[in-house]
Design a protein that fits this description.
globular; two-stranded antiparallel ribbon; 37% helix
Length: 166
């Protein structure tokens, strides 16, 4: 949605963000002269509205498009967990909870309600953030992966994320 808002789109692009579409990811990952690593946050919009600042949580939705794409391209998945990210902003997860879940299920739109330092939504609280990277989940390039192959690779990915989090 943010890519459809004039000016905001340009700011997001200058920050190095791109739309999480299949075609964009393939172009970035397989660019002939300068291929890029692609970071996908599998918590998605559900994580946006359910994250709590008073509890360390990590979400991995069972949306398997990123796993299928990794198999089709033969690219490894590198699990990562960010500790302290939940504390960057105060999450008002109880405020308008039913409405925010309705927005998510009806319009596929996440609507987090957060405040940061001085009550501002743009200034995070001073917090130590630590990113922990796991072992790469390697996959064999598979032109048309089966559901079983996708589930197996996803299971290995979730197991590594769980190991990191624990």
């Amino acid at each position: 949605v943010l890519f459809y808002i004039p000016v905001l789109r340009e700011i997001i692009l200058m920050m190095g963000c791109r739309e999480a579409t299949r075609s964009t990811i393939v172009k970035l990952a397989l660019h002939k002269t300068s291929p890029c690593s692609v970071a996908i946050l599998p918590g998605g919009m559900y994580e946006q509205i359910c994250t709590r600042h008073d509890e360390e949580r990590h979400y991995v939705q069972k949306r398997l498009g990123f796993v299928k794409l990794a198999l089709e391209l033969g690219l490894p998945m590198l699990p990562m967990v960010g500790f302290g990210e939940n504390q960057l902003f105060t999450t008002h997860y109880k405020f308008g909870n039913n409405f925010r879940h309705w927005l998510l299920s009806t319009l596929s739109m996440g609507a987090p309600f957060i405040t940061g330092r001085f009550g501002c939504t743009l200034i995070p609280h001073p917090t130590q953030v630590t990113h922990v990277y796991g072992k790469a989940v390697k996959v064999a390039k598979t032109e048309n992966p089966t559901e079983k192959q996708i589930e197996e690779a996803y299971g290995r990915y979730v197991a590594e994320v769980t190991r990191l989090f624990n």
